[in-house]
Amino acid sequence: MTGKVVEVKDQMLSIMDTTLRDGEQTSGVSFTDMEKLSVARILLEDVKVDRIEIASARVSDGEFLAAKRVMEWAREKAYLPRIEVLGFVDGKISLDWINSVGGKVLNLLCKGSYKHVTQQLRKTPEQHIDDIKKSVAYAEELGIRVNVYLEDWSNGMRNSKDYVHFMISELQKLNIDRIMLPDTLGILDPDETYEFCREMIETYPEAKFDFHAHNDYDLAIANVFHAIKAGIRCVHTTVNGLGERAGNAPLSSVIATVKDHLAMQTRVNETMLNKISKLVESFSGIRIPTNKPLIGEFVFTQCSGIHADGDSKNNLYFNDLLPERFGRTRVYALGKTSGKANIKNNLEELGIELDPASLKLVTDRIIELGDHKETVTIEDLPYIVADVLNYEDQAPAIRLVNYSLSHAMGLRPSATVSFMVKDKKYEANASGDGQYDAFMNAVQSVYEELGKPFPKLLDYSVTIPPGGKTDALVETVILWKLGREFKTRGLDSDQTAAAIKATMRMLNMIEK
Q1: Per-residue model confidence (pLDDT) at position 471
Q2: What is the DSSP letter of 240?
C-alpha cells in the first residue's frame, strides 16, 4: 500500500444505506410499498443511519407508489433531505418522476469509465458532460439536490484514469453535492481501493466523496475499511449485505469494523442492528447465513466446552464483539464438543442443579447424541435429564386427542381440534389462512378461554431432505417467544403434522 495512512480516531463517519434500492436488486427480492416504508422508518429513526436510497426512477408503478408513500411520511418528519432516489441522464424523465413522488435528492447515474461512456452510451466524454449539465440545470429548477454516481469508477481508475479525472474536474464546476465512487463490478482489492480513493481525495480536496463497495470477491468490508483509511468519510451499505450479484457491504459489519478497528464514530445505534436485520430477512425472503458476522444465528454461540469453561473463569473467550452491543445474547451450544461447563450453563438457565456425577452422565448422553448428528437444544435438556437419571416418566400435561384439517378450493382452511389439558378435554374449531394457521387459531381460542399465556410465533422453517421423495420426513422448527425466545421441533412426513408436533411440544414446555 502506498501513501500515508490517515489518522481516523474519533472522526465521524456517515452512512448511506441503499437496502431499498441496490439491496432490492438482489435476485428475487421485491419490497412492497408498506415494507419499504417500514424499513425506511426503522433505518432513519431507530438505527439512525444518515441517509437512505429508496428507489430507482422509472422502474415500475409499484416503485412509484412505494417512493411516494415513503416521501409523504418523510415530509411530515422533515427527513426529505436524507432520502435519495437513483435517476438517469435522460433529460427530464427521471427528474420529473422524482419530483412527482415528492423527492428532493437525485443520485444521478453517470459513467465512470471511458469504456462505458463510449460503448454503452456511444457518446464522447464531452457529450456525456453536456447531457449531465442539462440534468443538473433542470434539477435546480425543480429544487432537487444532485449527487453523482460514477458508475464503473473502479474500472475507470484501472484503465482510463484520464477520463475519470476529466469527469470529476467537469463535475466540480456544476452544482453537485456529493460524488459517489462505486466499485460497480466488485473488482477492487484493498490496496487498489486505498490508492484510488487517496488519489481522488488528494487531487480534489474540496469534493465530498462516498465509496460504494460490491462483494464479488468477498472483499467489500476490507475495501470499505481501506477507503476510510484513505480519507473517505461516507460509505454505502445494505442490511444483511443484500445487493446485485454477491451483494454490498453489510451495514452491521461496517459499523462494528469502523468502531473497533478505526475508533471512528457513527450515529448508528448498534443495539438496533439485529432488529433491522431480522425485519429485512423477513421482507426479502433471503435467509441470513447462520455464521454471518454479528447477525447470524450462531455467531454468539460457543460450542466448545473449553470456551465455556474459560468464560466462566474470567470471560477468557470474549472479544470486543459482545452480543449485548447488538441486541443479542450469548448462547452455549449443546453437542459432541460440549463439556460440563457448557451444559452446566444451560441447566442453570433452566433452574436445574445437578451433582457432579449426574452432570457427567448428562454430558456423556449429549456427546453421544452429537456423535449421531442429533440436534440438542436447551429445551431438550429436561427430557435428557429425566431419561438419563431414570426419573419417573410422567404423561405430558397437554395431550392431543385428535384433529381434523380441511382445505377446499374457494373456501378458507379450517381445523377442528380436541386435546387434553391435564385431565380435562377441550374442543375447538377455527378457520385460518392455511391449515396450520387454522389449527393455531383453534388452540389459541381455548387458551384465551382458560386465561393461559400463549407464545408469539417468531419464525417457522421447514427442512426437506434432497432427493425429491414425497414421503421423506421433514423437520419443522418453530421459534417462539414467551418471556424469552425458544425453539421446538417436529418431525413427520407431512409438513403440517410436523408443525403440530412442534406446537404440542411448545405447549407442554410452557405448561411445565
Answers
A1: 62
A2: G
Catalytic-labelled residue, pool 21, 82, 198, 328: 21
Q: Do residue 225 and residue 318 come from a single domain?
A: no
The cell for 50 is 444518515
- 21 a catalytic residue: yes
Amino acid code (one letter) for 61 = D
E-assigned strands of 268-396? 301-302, 331-332
Which of 374, 335, 339, 336 lies closest to 359, judged by CA?
A: 339
Which domain covers residue 332, as residue numbers? Answer: 301-388
Number of domains in the chain: 3
- In terms of Cβ atoms closer than 10 Å to its own Cβ (0-12, 13-18, 19+), residue 70 is buried
Is residue 342 domain-resident?
A: yes
Answer yes or no: pTM beyond 0.85: no
The count of C-alpha atoms lying within 13 angstroms of the C-alpha of 346, restricted to the half-sphere facing its C-beta, is 29
Could you give the count of Cα atoms lying within 13 Å of 5 in the half-sphere of its Cβ?
Answer: 9
Task: Give dist(CA 215, CA 217) in Å, integer.
Answer: 6
CA dist 172 and 298 (Å) reads: 47
Q: Are 93 and 237 within one domain?
A: yes
Output the domain CATH number for residue 505: 3.30.160.270
Which pLDDT value is given to residue 306?
44
Q: Say whether both 262 and 152 belong to one domain.
A: yes
Question: Could you give the 3-state DSSP secondary structure of residue 16?
Answer: strand
Instruction: Provide the grid cell at 88.
Output: 438517469
Confidence of residue 317 (pLDDT cuts 50, 70, 90): very low
Cβ distance 19 to 39 under 8 Å?
yes
Residues 40-46 have a mean pLDDT of: 97
255, 284, 313 — which closes off a domain? Answer: 284
Any residues with CB less than 8 A from the CB of 471 and at least 6 apart, and which?
493
The dihedral region occupied by 201, where left means phi > 0, alpha psi between -120 and 50, and beta the remainder, is alpha
Between CA 452 and CA 60 the distance in angstroms is: 48
Query: Rounded to whole angstroms, how far apart are CA atoms 348 and 306?
Result: 18
244 three-state secondary structure: coil
Query: Is residue 357 a part of any domain in this protein?
Result: yes
Active site residue 151: yes
109 three-class SS? strand
Q: Which residue among 24, 35, 84, 151 is the active-site one?
A: 151
The terminus-to-terminus CA distance of the chain in angstroms comes to 61
Q: How far apart are CA 381 and CA 344, in angstroms?
A: 11
Same domain assignment for residues 348 and 408: no
